[in-house]
Amino acid sequence: MCAGHEFIPLPQGVNGTTADFHSIRTKTTDSPSHLTSGFCKIVAGPQRPASYNFEETKYVLSGQIDVLDVATGVTHHLVPGDFAFFHVGSKVEFSTMSEGLAFYAVTRPIRTPHPNLQGREEDVKSRLYDVDRKRECVTVMRI
Questions:
Q1: What are the φ and ψ backbone dihedral angles of 82, each rounded to 5 degrees?
Q2: Would residue 44 be called left, alpha or beta, if left means φ above 0 and alpha means ψ between -120 and 50 degrees?
Q3: What is the pLDDT of residue 141?
């Protein structure tokens, strides 16, 4: 079963979706939270409003994603290689004239699991181990 970004189906009648593919409860000592990552896919159609009660960082992989900052009225045209950060309290509207794909990381638990990863567990054999510090240092997921 494939689970990469090219296999994210859009729900019937919807022009954009997210697909969370990995989430952890962080071990940050001052303010533990979740760290979730996934892909965002959008095609031409109506604007998709979003209000943030978490932080998000988004990196555009292909196409174009337009982001209207509701507070300022400024539209940012993001293209491959562009990076955006959304603060708690941000209100935006996403759109595109063609289609766009981005990778994101957010500080929230999984909301919309990647449809091709539901029920699949992370392979513990994919974890790398730091021998000097005697701890896991990297988790590798093949999607």
A1: -80, 150
A2: beta
A3: 45
Identity at 143, one-letter amino acid code: I
pLDDT averaged per 10 residues in sequence order, the chain, 143 residues: 55 80 77 85 94 94 95 95 94 96 90 63 47 51 43
Its pTM stands at 0.74
Rounded-to-integer distance, Cα 133 and Cα 88, Å: 35
Quick one: residue 13, left, alpha or beta (phi over 0 = left, psi -120 to 50 = alpha)? left
Beta bridge partners of 73: none
Q: How many CB atoms within 10 Å of residue 20?
A: 19
d(CA 30, CA 100): 36
